[in-house]
Design brief:
Blueprint lengths: L1 H34 L2 H37 L6 H36 L7 H29 L6
């Protein structure tokens, strides 16, 4: 079962990177926004966008591939309730993440423009930050649910 162990290791490592990068990036961006220092905000937004491309995007691709591979290796039917609910929650988190990426790129650009032009932050920044924050709540909650379902694999029927 070396194949199973390897795929499981990749799946767990990828899940850890996905969750850890998302939570860490959100925390540092939220703190930088609260501080209000334009240079810090510009730098943090730039790093958050880089982290999303370097860590989050690959793990978002790896997670369903390795997860479905593990389900196949274990002979678990795809119509099991916990599998279906996991896929639904994962898609919910992804549906929140896509606009978050767009917002992060816009906030990065707005912060950079304000910093380089030595001007006040564009008013759209706070509106984008507000939406970004509230999209994070269902995404984070969905990922907590995915972790629960992966570990406990409860009997769920629809």
């Amino acid at each position: 079962m070396i194949e199973y162990a390897l795929i499981k290791w990749i799946h767990i490592l990828s899940a850890t990177l996905l969750f850890g990068t998302g939570l860490g990036s959100a925390f540092y961006k939220w703190c930088a926004d609260r501080q209000g220092n334009l240079a810090t905000m510009a730098h943090t937004n730039r790093m958050v966008v880089i982290a999303d491309w370097a860590f989050t995007t690959p793990t978002i691709i790896i997670q369903p591939i390795t997860g479905l591979w593990l389900v196949h290796l274990l002979g678990i039917p795809l119509d099991q309730g916990w599998v279906l609910l996991t896929l639904f929650l994962y898609c919910l988190a992804g549906a929140c993440w896509l606009p978050v990426v767009w917002l992060q790129i816009r906030m990065r650009d707005l912060a950079h423009a304000a910093l380089t032009q030595n001007s006040a932050m564009d008013s759209r920044y706070q509106r984008y930050a507000h939406i970004w924050f509230w999209l994070g709540i269902p995404a984070f909650s969905a990922m907590i649910g995915v972790y629960f379902l992966m570990v406990f694999k409860p009997a769920i029927s629809f």
